[in-house]
Each structure stands twice: as structure tokens, then as C-alpha cells.
Design a protein that fits this description.
Elements (H helix, E strand, L loop, with lengths): L2 H29 L4 H32 L10 E3 L1 H7 L1 H6 L8 E4 L5 E3 L18 H4 L14 E4 L4 E10 L19 E9 L1 E10 L6 H26 L17 E3 L8 H14 L6 E4 L1 H9 L19 E2 L2 E5 L7 E5 L1 H4 E14 L5 H4 L1 E14 L5 E5 L7
Parallel strand pairs: 4-13, 8-15, 9-11
Antiparallel strand pairs: 1-3, 2-13, 5-6, 7-14, 9-12, 10-11, 12-15, 13-14
Helix pairs in contact: 1-2, 3-6
């Protein structure tokens, strides 16, 4: 029953009990006792009143429980991860016991999507998992930065992206005009036309068919396993992709990216990185990130002087560590002993060919008879490096060659 019906019945029951109590009182005054008929009616009315009170209590408890749910309310938004979007999709719900789904568009595989948590009373769109409330622990200011966070992301509907690479530029090409009618300087600048193929990066995971009946577990497999695997491979290729065999051409392997030498007896790793940042600036760009392997970043932070005091003390700003005022992206995608810095927003761009998709199927090997299904997540992406001079790479170990 809705709240208005309960209120109406409670009001009617209250009035009926009050009327019968008055009748019983008058009968006692007149006859010295209540009639049997009135006593029966009062007992029935009291029971109906108790039922109405219980229905009201149950309804209020249900409302309170929902109101205490994180982000409850149609005017609020929650962040749905790719895994949650998949288990909420009509494709997944209609799959049932078939063990297969059509592709489900989950948008950005590395982000979240705002959704309405409810559509009308009692029709939750977002699944509720009592044992986990990820939103309570999600702090955007403290999340780990990735390469994708500092790059421009575009959309394409083609299988390749044509672009122009800045080849030669005369930074001293401008001069003053020699009087009225004098010739103005022609800027000398050359471009090379390039093409970047859209490549597919995917990962799949074998799981028991029973997982399909457990939305929380299925969401966890997608968000914590597949997304991690695809993101790891994407970062590997952004930096060191060979450009062959279906790989992106990584920034580190792009011709024209400047190389800076290894540390010497008089040059520390900190010196080298600072000079690389300066080299980016001398090319008229501003470095937006320093990419370091976790081991190298730890070595820098733990370096001590002769007096046993730490040489470098990193104070995170908004949860983001910085080196020489430039954000540090700490990732195992960067090979140990090497680093890369540059203007990632201006110098390169990622292109999403399609929104990321997730699907499940038992049509693999002997999965149908083994009661297994495969969960597949994939994206198609291209990488264009417009301005190689916006990047500088180097080594932090003299034993490594660039």
C-alpha cells in the first residue's frame, strides 16, 4: 500500500475505535456493562487499528532504509563504473541463462558515468550491494593519475587518423617590415603528413557461469580485472608501442623526440630531469607530466645527502606528486631507468574509435560443456604525436642506451 492509503485507513480505524469506545462508555453508564455486540466490534476495530499502525511502521522503516542508502533520491547522481553499467544493461538482464550477450556500450572504460539511482519508488536502476559501498571511499583528489589523464582525448569514426607532424620550424622567422610597402618575412615551416591506424586493445577473462547470477561479483571482475588489464596495455603502447603488429606507435619510439644524456659524476637524476623540462620549454612548450617507473621515483624520493637528510621532499598537491612543479605519473609502463617528459596535451592525442564494450559468451572452446563463460572488454584507439619536439626522453642509468 502507498502512504496515502495507509494514512486513510489509519484515520478511519482511529475514528471507528473512538466511536466504539464512546458507545461502550455510554452502555456501561446505562446498563452497568457493555453489550456483547459492542465488545466484539471494538475488538475488531482495535485489531484493524493495530494493523494500520504496523503497516505505517513498516512503510516508514522501508523509507528510512532507502533514504540511508548512499545517493538515494531521483535528484541525485551516482557514478556507475563500466562493470555496473554492464550489469545494469538490458542486454545483460535479457541474457538470462543463455550465457551470452550482445556488445554492451559502457562508454569510457577508464572512467565513470553519472546515473539516476532510482526511477520511481521501488524501481532501483543501480544494483545495491550491502557489502560494498565504493562511493564512500572514492576521492577524486586522491586518485592515481594515469597517462590518459594528461592527454587530450578525441573521437573518430574512421579506421585511421590522418594528421600532420611539424618537421621544420624557424623560430626566428619573423622580422620587422622595412617601411611601408616593404616585404614581410615568410615564416619557414614544414609538415609531414602521417597516418595513425586505429588499433584494438582487448582482454578477456574466464569465469564460472554462476558468476552471472552474482551481479556484485561480475561487476568486480569487470572493474578490477579487465579494466586494469586493458589500461595497463594501453599505457604500455602509449609509451613504447612499436607501431607494428597491431600496436600503437608509442611516443618514446616516435622519430623526432629529443633525447637527453644519462647522469654523470657531476649530474644527478634530479638535474637530468630538470634539464629535460627546460628542453621542453626551450622548444616553446610547457611540460605537463614526468613519466617515471615506480622504482626510479622511489630512488629519487629516498636520495640522501652526506648529512643523511633527504635531498628531495615531495609534497603532493591535491594528491598529485610533483617534481620541479610538474606532475609525476608513476607507472610500470615506463621501463626502469628511463623517463619521458613533455607537453602531453599539445604534443599528442588519443582517439577513441568507439566507446568501450563488454560482452560475455560461452561460445569458446569447451566452455559450454564446462559451465564457463568468457567476459571480454575491448576498445579501439589511435595515437597521434603531432609535435615530437614537445617531448624529451632520457635515461637515469648510465648503463642504458637510448
Amino acid at each position: 500500500m502507498d502512504i496515502d492509503t495507509i494514512k486513510s485507513e489509519l484515520k478511519s480505524a482511529t475514528e471507528n475505535v473512538h466511536m466504539l469506545v464512546q458507545r461502550q462508555s455510554e452502555e456501561i453508564k446505562q446498563y452497568g456493562a457493555s453489550t456483547l455486540e459492542t465488545a466484539k466490534e471494538l475488538k475488531a476495530a482495535t485489531a484493524k487499528y493495530d494493523d494500520s499502525i504496523k503497516a505505517m511502521d513498516d512503510r516508514l522503516s522501508n523509507i528510512e532504509a532507502k533514504a540511508n542508502r548512499p545517493h538515494y533520491g531521483v535528484d541525485q547522481q551516482v557514478k556507475a563504473t563500466p562493470g555496473m553499467q554492464f550489469v545494469m544493461s538490458e542486454e545483460f538482464k535479457s541474457a538470462g541463462k543463455r550465457g551470452t550477450t550482445d556488445s554492451v556500450n559502457v562508454g569510457n572504460l577508464f572512467g565513470t558515468k553519472s546515473i539516476d539511482p532510482t526511477v520511481g519508488d521501488g524501481q532501483d536502476r543501480a544494483p545495491v550491494f550491502p557489502e560494498q559501498v565504493p562511493e564512500i571511499y572514492f576521492d577524486p583528489g586522491q586518485r592515481e593519475m594515469t597517462l590518459r589523464d594528461i592527454m587530450n582525448i578525441g573521437q573518430t569514426t574512421s579506421n585511421s587518423v590522418d594528421f600532420f607532424v611539424e618537421k621544420d620550424f624557424d623560430e626566428d622567422g619573423a622580422t620587422s617590415q622595412n617601411g611601408e610597402g616593404g616585404l614581410k618575412a615568410q615564416q619557414k615551416m614544414q609538415f609531414d603528413k602521417k597516418s595513425a591506424n586505429v588499433e584494438t586493445i582487448a582482454a578477456w577473462l574466464p569465469v564460472s557461469r554462476q558468476v552471472l547470477d552474482d551481479a556484485a561479483m561480475l561487476q568486480s571482475h569487470i572493474d578490477n580485472r579487465l579494466v586494469y588489464s586493458v589500461n595497463k596495455e594501453l599505457e604500455d603502447q602509449i609509451l613504447f608501442g612499436s607501431g607494428a603488429s597491431g600496436q600503437l606507435l608509442g611516443i618514446h619510439n616516435t622519430p623526432g623526440v629529443e633525447t637527453i644524456g644519462a647522469p654523470t659524476s657531476t649530474t644527478t637524476q634530479l638535474d637530468l630531469i630538470r634539464r629535460a623540462i627546460a628542453a621542453v620549454r626551450l622548444s616553446e612548450y610547457a611540460a605537463t607530466g614526468v613519466i617515471l617507473n615506480p622504482s626510479d621515483w622511489a630512488t629519487i624520493e629516498l636520495t640522501k645527502g652526506d648529512d643523511e637528510h633527504y635531498i628531495w621532499v615531495s609534497v603532493p598537491e591535491g594528491g598529485v606528486p610533483r617534481l620541479w612543479r610538474v606532475p609525476v605519473i608513476e607507472t610500470t609502463a615506463m621501463q626502469e631507468g628511463r623517463f619521458l617528459t613533455g607537453a602531453f596535451g599539445l604534443g599528442a592525442q588519443l582517439w577513441d574509435r568507439m566507446a568501450s564494450t563488454v560482452r560475455i559468451s560461452d561460445s569458446h572452446a569447451e566452455y559450454f560443456t564446462s559451465n564457463l563463460v568468457a567476459i571480454l572488454a575491448e576498445l579501439r584507439v589511435a595515437l597521434t604525436t603531432y609535435r615530437p619536439k614537445a617531448f624529451v626522453k632520457g635515461v637515469l642509468d648510465q648503463d642504458l642506451s637510448t
